[in-house]
Amino acid sequence: MYFLVLDGTSSEEIRDTQEGEDVTLECRFTPQTSRETLTYYWAKNNKQTHDNVAIGNVPLDSNYRLNYHPEKGIYDLLISNASYDRDNGKFECKVKAGGSGTNLHVQKYGLTVLTVPQPPEIAPAAHVTVTEGKRQELTCASKGGSPDPQVKWYREGE
Length: 158
Prior knowledge:
By secondary structure, the protein is mainly beta. The chain has 1 helix and 11 strands; from the N terminus they run βββββββαββββ. The protein has one helix at about 85, and strands at about 10-20, 25, 40-45, 50-55, 60, 65-70, 75-80, 90-95, 105-115, 120-125, 140. Strands 1-9-8-3-4-5 form a 6-stranded mixed sheet, with no helix packed on it. Strands 2-7-6 form a 3-stranded antiparallel sheet, with no helix packed on it. The longest helix is centred in the middle third of the chain and has 4 residues, at about 85. The two termini are about 40 Å apart. Pfam families: C2-set_2, V-set. One of its GO terms (molecular function) is cell adhesion molecule binding.
């Protein structure tokens, strides 16, 4: 499913991919018939940074390629060998008017690179002797994983 965004408004499409897989983020727009110079670029945002990953027909990372056909309204970002550290986050395709910098088209993606969490660990130990009527606190946690894993407790046999 893809959303077409017009007139500078935007909504975000959520995409999932596995670590190591290839994924394509499509940017489709109405081709401009005017002779105005347009600027095309892809940017990536995460909690720490905002980086351009492609400008015009030039990808700025060796794992990124472009399907660049502005005359057809196509400016897709092809991500090879998706990596959680590099690719997990928000991507944005923009088509801007050259002179004014006005956004003519914006298309956003939230890309989640799925990774498996480490096995859960129970503290203080997996087998604990508890005295009836006494309080015993156990903690269950898992490291890693994207998206964040959900931990649920069950009694044995339930």
